[in-house]
Amino acid sequence: MSDFIKSVVEEVMKPYQKPKMNPIMAIPPQVQKTEQPMKEMKSNQAIPGISRPNYQRAKMDKRLSVAAAVPPSHQRTHISKQVKPQQPTNGNNNRAKGYLKDPLAQLQTISLIQGKKPAGSYESFSSQQQRSLRESKLIGQTADGTKAWLFNDLHSSLENNFQRSLKSNSIGVITSEKCTAGQLFYLNDLLREYPSMKYCLTWDKESRQSFVLELYEDNEQALLDAVKVFYKKVSQRTYQSIHIYKAISPSPWLTKQLDIKGSVSGAAVIEGFDYYTGVLLADRYLKRNPAITAGFSFEKNYLLIYGEYDSVSKISEDLKKEAERIK
After folding, report:
1. Which region ranges are annotated with the description Disordered (predicted)?
2. CATH for 242-327, options being 3.40.30.10, 3.30.70.1710, 3.40.50.1450, 3.40.980.10
């Protein structure tokens, strides 16, 4: 029994002689345990029934396991923050320049507008604007039913819906529920301003059908301007009850539409009263001014005055004032 106790005391008093290792490069304790020789494992269990825990070894194994569990890259990161970076050599400069020229530099040159599509597949702003300008559109409409349109690059299946065969890419259309003499004066001014413009007119002085004017012109911008000018004049007339339209040296086309015989230097139309009101106004004026030489023509919806322009202009203004007093 004394020999047994003596062996136990000698075993406990032995100093721990395990060599030190680099904690960063240490092999985890689990791996070390698997690599221990079978002889050492047997020697630790030489005395059955006796448990001899080594607390120093347990604490060291715990410290080594924590150090081995930390990734080397994480430790290097902390070390690099504390050490002042060295100046790169020429070789490092070349590698850095080559790196910048590759993925990062290419990434910085990509435009945000490109998205997932290549830059060449996007339509330019000018082409988008040009395409939108070629669309047919409604220019406007007034309270009395006058409307204006512009048709561009009409579909081939729709070309027969106009009053004449189309020979231009753009068509301007102005319509109204009523026919008025003022519409003829507007068209007369328009044809003088745009001599190359073609037209097709549906107009009746008795206003038994709607007014339809189609304008044809290869120059889209000129056609658009003409339609807007005509529409503006028509829309402005709705704010008055009696209207005057005058023409200096009316064209043969206008004199034909108004049934004026011969050549005259002036023509005027007063709208806003009926046939017999026009007769009344002319009778009063002729009795007060017997020397005038202007001609009169009475229609259902207007009074026509024609002759020398200065005389026609004065008579039309006087009759308009008289008509406004008796209405």
Report:
1. 67-97
2. 3.30.70.1710
